[in-house]
Amino acid sequence: MDLVVVGSVGLDDVETPFGKVERALGGSAIYFSLTAALLTRVGFVGVVGEDFPEEGVELLKARGVDVRGLERAAGKTFRWSGRYHEDLNHRDTLLTELNCFEHFSPKLPDDYRAAKYLFLGNIHPSLQLDVLDQSSASFVAMDTMNFWISGAPDDLRRVLARVDAITINDEEARDLTGQSNIVRAAREIHRLGPKLVVIKRGEYGALIARDDEYFFAPAFPLEDVVDPTGAGDSFAGGFMGYIARHDATSWAALCQATIAGSTLASFSVEAFSVDALRSLTHDQITARAAAFRRLTDFPAIVL
Amino acid sequence: MDLVVVGSVGLDDVETPFGKVERALGGSAIYFSLTAALLTRVGFVGVVGEDFPEEGVELLKARGVDVRGLERAAGKTFRWSGRYHEDLNHRDTLLTELNCFEHFSPKLPDDYRAAKYLFLGNIHPSLQLDVLDQSSASFVAMDTMNFWISGAPDDLRRVLARVDAITINDEEARDLTGQSNIVRAAREIHRLGPKLVVIKRGEYGALIARDDEYFFAPAFPLEDVVDPTGAGDSFAGGFMGYIARHDATSWAALCQATIAGSTLASFSVEAFSVDALRSLTHDQITARAAAFRRLTDFPAIVL
């Protein structure tokens, strides 16, 4: 096992201008593992309730995800419901029911503990700390959200101090640091712990910052973006999957991993829930990753 | 004369979280010509009132801008005042006084009419049409804004049908086409006339679209963005300046021009008004344009 993810597993109701789905597969660990599994072997840590469809577990297995860390608990599965605005850049959360997720206490199987790469999905920072205590990973990335930035700042700082990388969106980066300039925000986050800051910018792409180095990847230009849910976790799955597959965290590898993340995210948003990831092939992602080069490559400039 | 710009000349009051200026040099033709002049010879068409400071005209001349198309009219110069929000991505317009700009009727000196490249800055579409009738340019780019999209849609469509390129921001592109997806919006704009669509995205950079080709340039990562006023016109100045300097509109040249535009815009926003452009050197812009490559370049990816 090279890569382990700990995160949420949910049944989502999602409405976008292009339709809606109910009780669809969702949650950070689901999107992350389905994308990362295209690149490396992933161990899955999460919890589902009695109402979780067996089909979901079968999908993970069929896609090569190791589900020995999947816990089945009494009660219902975590539920989330959201409605996206016309431009897909904003959404309203209509419902959040923690259900069995409320008493989740992540437990890593023995060989998961030894995995070199670990991703702490967007869960309570105290649970992220629990997982860190169980893991001997040498490269740990975390995700978080506004809810924890304001609601559990002390625990969050403890996690930040112990991880190598963070994936975060513009708004969260500004909330976390109080810096509206994203270069200053990234520098401030470096000081809190993560040497690598990955800023997710939705339709504007992603940027990574380490020391004074920056790399930008655009979002792949898509005519049909159907459901942005899970785009950030799909990005993280591609990003960490690439790093684990090559066992490399050089700057060059991190830039390549950013393209891998953008590639996986671009597929994820083309259909509701995880539907676009169900049968996605290695050939498809290889072709799209290659197309990224043309989006930003330019001949030498003479001014 | 290779490149001509027609646009506004104003005295701006601007307030940002970093300070404020009053009656500072502004307007689309000012930003455009000061940036383009670093790359090529620019002819300036605009109007100023009796209160316009001679220092402004001297600056244009000192920077090599040809001001024979600058008209001096009775009354006051165009005035604009705006206040930026904390994140600099939004601003409130506090004042717009057309003054002598209200009765502006652009007249191109004879040799301006023969210039091969023309930029129609953000002025009333009926004036843009007047200028088109006077010019024999073979490559024309235009700018516009929401005010004309809703206020003068018929004239605007006539201009669109006659130009080769448009510079427009995300929100304007959506307003113009009714398409929230930017790929679809660009395609819709192609149908209205401009074969080349340049989408300006502020801190997220710029993208250009022609047929099914796309190229993205990030905004240069800056720790100190002081005043975004004129960033779009500075971009356009760098973009059109590059094209005119090389007399080339191949796809490769357009990609390079996008980097040139992003380079000039990045300097423009580092100080209030046009202050950062007053003494900007060719060496400085060459160095920053070279630094752009590292922001998006990555080694071949093996997924």
The helical percent of chain A reads 25-40%
**Terminal CA distance of chain A:** 51 Å
Profile the largest sheet of chain A. 9 strands, mixed
- Low-confidence stretches of chain A are none
What is the succession of H and E elements of chain A? EEEHEHEEEHEHEHHEHHEEEHHH
| Count of individual beta strands of chain A | 13
User: What would you call the shape of chain A?
Assistant: globular
Q: Give, in spatial order, the strands making up the sheet with the most strands of chain A.
A: 5-4-1-8-9-10-11-12-13
C-alpha-based Rg of chain A, rounded: 18 Å
Number of helices of chain A: 11
Strand content of chain A: 25-35%
Largest interface by Cβ-Cβ < 8 Å = A-B, 55 and 55 residues
Oligomer: homodimer
Secondary structure category of chain A: alpha/beta
Q: What integer is the average pLDDT of chain A?
A: 97
